[in-house]
Amino acid sequence: MTYLFTSESVSEGHPDKVCDQISDALLDLMLSKDEQARSAIETMATTNRVILSGEIRLRNNIPFQEIDQTIRHVIKNIGYEQGEFNWKDIQIENYLHEQSADIALGVDRNGAGDQGIMFGYATNECDAADFMPAPIFYAHQILKNLSRKRHSGIYKGLGPDAKSQVTFLYKDNKPVSIDNIVVSTQHHPDITNSFLSEMVIKTIQEVIPKNLLCPIDKIYINPTGRFIIGGPAGDTGLTGRKIIVDTYGGAAPHGGGAFSGKDATKVDRTAAYMARYIAKNIVAAKIADKCLIQLSYAIGMTYPLSIYINTFGTSKISNFQLTDFIKKEIDLTPKGMREKLSLNKPFFLQTAVYGHFGRKPEENGCFSWEKTDLTSLFQKLS
């Protein structure tokens, strides 16, 4: 069977990602003050304005000045010092309020912070992609490299806002080559299209293996021919609108709940991380070539209502056996997941761009769900 499959990524300067980063930076700020802080922060960004809303709870209120400084610091680090979106003079409106007592009631007894379904996925389809689908993995790599060059000053004249899109040719469910690539990047008016194309193509060639790369005439750079107005000045941003970019690029389902701005009592985030952790370890243990896991929860309840596993006919062990083993061996309560993955630490800003999965575990505990320390556990089933 032969087919094409496409995934996209967006840079840290994309309007929606600006908002994800602000929401997660504020979550980190609260966790730095109180490890038991509760947060569900939504951010909107538009021309020279950032608007906050959502629910929070922590022991002591944070002065608005600290919130203001945190937001401006995020925007400055991204690189927005433009006329219509500038970290120095944006207006910030704060409509954050106390978490609902009805929600807190369930969470305080270690129940889930909401109902919902969450998915985790892993595949060994591409050796270099760290158990991620190849299209989303390389879409992220292109923009990460472009961002490094912009921040280091190697490529002058690039703006913070950018998008990539990578289409792979699959044969027998394995990615064999890239069919086409699209990159759109904000730029200074003085940058010519030819120079811009040269910079971006070089960036692509540095991260895409030669045996996978498509011909240069199938790499499309700024297809409209002009991308000067970008970021929230060009397109309003909202937290949680890039959930497919955050996960598996469309290669696996998404439960619907966004991640950014939510503390670890929210199973939208925590259970999605745990499901990825389990799926990745199953594939890393060579139990299956790919694995999809769904978990479902009800607000206030401690244990998942259901566990679904699909190994797409690639597993040496039946899906029923895997499900039963996971129930017995892994703590899937909200408290158990938070403790196992160390999710009460202020590291979530790191997750807000270039995907929550397929990343390297950090010394501060971030991306703990990307560890493969459960492989010996699953190998007992072999």
Structural description of this entry:
By secondary structure, this protein is an alpha+beta fold. Helix content is about 30%, strand content about 25%.
List key phrases describing it.
382 residues; alpha+beta; 4-stranded mixed sheet; 13 strands
Helix fraction by DSSP (H/I, runs of at least 4): 25-40%
Number of helices: 10
Q: How big is the Rg? A: 21 Å
> By helix and strand content, what is the structural category?
alpha+beta
Summarize the helices and strands and which ones pair or pack.
Elements: E1 2-10, H1 15-33, E2 38-46, E3 49-57, H2 64-78, E4 81-82, E5 85-86, E6 91-98, H3 101-108, E7 116-123, H4 134-152, E8 158-171, E9 174-187, H5 193-207, E10 219-221, E11 237-238, H6 243-246, H7 267-284, E12 290-297, E13 306-310, H8 319-329, H9 334-341, H10 375-379
Parallel strand pairs: 3-6, 9-10
Antiparallel strand pairs: 1-8, 2-3, 2-11, 4-5, 7-12, 8-9, 12-13
Helix pairs in contact: 1-2, 4-5, 7-9
